């Protein structure tokens, strides 16, 4: 799941990290539970069964109503030879969420030193372009439940309402976020049906979600944010507003059109608002609310990133940073 939607992950007596795998699940699947993997609110753990390494994931019903969709996308890519997580058993579904048991894929993620980051970004951009070709070939064109397109997301009047409420509480931060939303709405109003390639996307094509063994790709992990949209939306968490090597590598394999270069920024802005409406509504809409306003530092940090390459291709971002 992406950083931007972590706050929404939910549900059930045994959600999250900290409580571990439900003992009934361990008994049913004959598992020896291991350590938690990461700090995602969805819940991901190591486990073994009969000596075989596995991974257990929990999808809360509130945050992942269409949990079968990422499994379907991963299976369609696996059929084309991409190493994606494969379930060992049929998922265990309950009223509050779903448990899924996967084979653990071999290999390790690449954590490049600073000097090696440009090469890693470039290689990952090239790989993402190849991934998108395969994603388009899956033929999956329906939208995942709970997701919308970027234009619909930023045009949501409820999002605007709660951003204004947040601006009253946090003027500088709220003003920046609302300006971002307004700029994205304006771009899509001027370009209502962008003729740009669409397919299912991965959603978080970051180094930690790619496994390698001696330079060979052995795993593409974490399809929790996969949905159908513009392919350039996958830059949101691969390029992240500044990793220009990703864009350069991608463009070498599949040349981006002029329209796509101009589309990168508004879909990136729209991605920053995934989950934000519900987060703000839960705080500002609560009767007798107390406590600090929601932390939207993740969004603000990314709005302040600088991309010389995007600025050269699509102009600067005006009041929304120096892109």
Automatic annotation (TrEMBL):
Superkingdom, natural source: Bacteria
Pfam annotation, one family: APH
Residue intervals of the Aminoglycoside phosphotransferase domain: 55-245
InterPro entries: Aminoglycoside_PTrfase, Kinase-like_dom_sf
Protein name, per record: Aminoglycoside phosphotransferase domain-containing protein
Organism: Planobispora rosea
Lineage: Bacteria, Bacillati, Actinomycetota, Actinomycetes, Streptosporangiales
């Amino acid at each position: 799941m992406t950083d931007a939607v972590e706050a929404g992950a939910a549900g059930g007596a045994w959600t999250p990290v900290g409580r571990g795998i439900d003992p009934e699940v361990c008994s049913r699947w004959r598992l020896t539970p291991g350590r938690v993997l990461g700090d995602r609110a969805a819940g991901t753990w190591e486990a073994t069964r009969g000596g075989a390494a596995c991974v257990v994931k929990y999808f809360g019903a509130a945050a992942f109503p269409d949990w079968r969709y990422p499994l379907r996308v991963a299976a369609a890519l696996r059929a084309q030879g991409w190493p994606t997580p494969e379930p060992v058993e049929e998922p265990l579904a309950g009223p509050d969420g779903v448990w899924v048991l996967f084979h653990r894929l071999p290999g390790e993620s690449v954590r490049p030193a600073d000097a090696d980051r440009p090469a890693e970004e470039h290689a990952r951009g090239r790989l993402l372009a190849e991934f998108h070709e395969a994603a388009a070939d899956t033929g999956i064109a329906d939208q995942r439940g709970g997701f919308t397109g970027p234009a619909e997301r930023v045009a949501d009047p409820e999002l605007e309402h709660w951003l204004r409420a947040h601006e009253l509480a946090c003027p500088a931060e709220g003003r920046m976020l609302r300006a971002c939303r307004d700029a994205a709405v304006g771009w899509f109003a001027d370009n209502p049906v962008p003729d740009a390639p669409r397919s299912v996307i991965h959603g978080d094509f970051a180094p930690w979600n790619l496994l390698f063994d001696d330079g060979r790709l052995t795993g593409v992990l974490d399809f929790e944010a996969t949905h159908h949209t513009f392919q350039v939306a996958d830059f949101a968490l691969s390029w992240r507003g500044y990793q220009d090597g990703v864009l350069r590598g991608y463009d070498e394999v599949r040349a981006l059109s002029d329209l796509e270069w101009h589309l990168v920024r508004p879909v990136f802005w729209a991605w920053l608002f995934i989950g934000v409406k519900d987060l703000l509504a839960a705080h500002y809409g609560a009767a007798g609310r107390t406590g600090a306003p929601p932390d939207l530092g993740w969004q603000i940090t990314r709005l302040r990133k600088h991309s010389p390459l995007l600025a050269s291709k699509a102009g600067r971002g005006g009041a929304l940073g120096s892109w």
